[in-house]
Amino acid sequence: MTDSLEALFAQARACRLCEGSLPHGCRPVLRGSPSARLLIVGQAPGARVHASGIPWNDPSGDRLRQWLAMDRAAFYDESRIAVVPMGLCYPGTAPKGGDYPPRPECAPLWHPPLRAALSGVRLTLLVGSYAQDYYLGGRRKRTMTDTVAAWRDYLPDFLPLPHPSWRNTAWLKKNPWFEEELVPALRRRVAEALDG
C-alpha cells in the first residue's frame, strides 16, 4: 500500500465522528490497496462484521460471493478487491428489525478521498440502494429494482446490485431475471476488471 493510501486508511479506521450516535461504538471496516481493480460499495457493516472486523463476513457475504462465483481467498485479496461501505461502522439494529441506515456523515467525508486514492479501480459494484443513491444520484431510476434492471446504463464504471441479505430472498424469487441474466454478466464484468 502506498504511504498516502495507507495513511488515509489509518485515518478512516481511527474515525470517531459518529461515536455518540453508534450504539455499539466505532469500528470502521474497510480494505483495499492501490492495485485493487474492483471496488465493492455496500451499506454498512452488520453485527457479525462489526464483531469480526472482516467485511462481508456473514450470510450476505456468502450470497454475494456466490453471485460473483468467488471463494473467500479471492474475495479477500486486497491487492485485487477493495471494500468501502457507505457507512464504515455498524449503525445498530432498528426496533422493527434490520439495521439502521448508514450514518449520513460517513460517505461524504470518506468516499471522495478513498475513491481518488483507489485509482486503479475499473469497476465499482453498488450493492443496495444507499450506494446507488450516492454514486448514481439523478441517474438512478425510480426504484432499486428499476435501477438494477437498467444496469447496462451505468457501465463501464458502475454495476448496481440488490443487497444480498436474506431479507431480499423474496425479491430474488420475484425477479428471476437477476440470477438468469445479470449474475452471468456480473461474473464476466468482474473477471474482465480483475484480469486486465
Automatic annotation (TrEMBL):
Organism superkingdom: Bacteria
Residues spanning the signal sequence: none
Coiled coil segments of this chain: none
Pfam family, one: UDG
Residues annotated as domain Uracil-DNA glycosylase-like: 29-187
Protein name from the UniProt record: Uracil-DNA glycosylase
Source species: Azospirillum rugosum
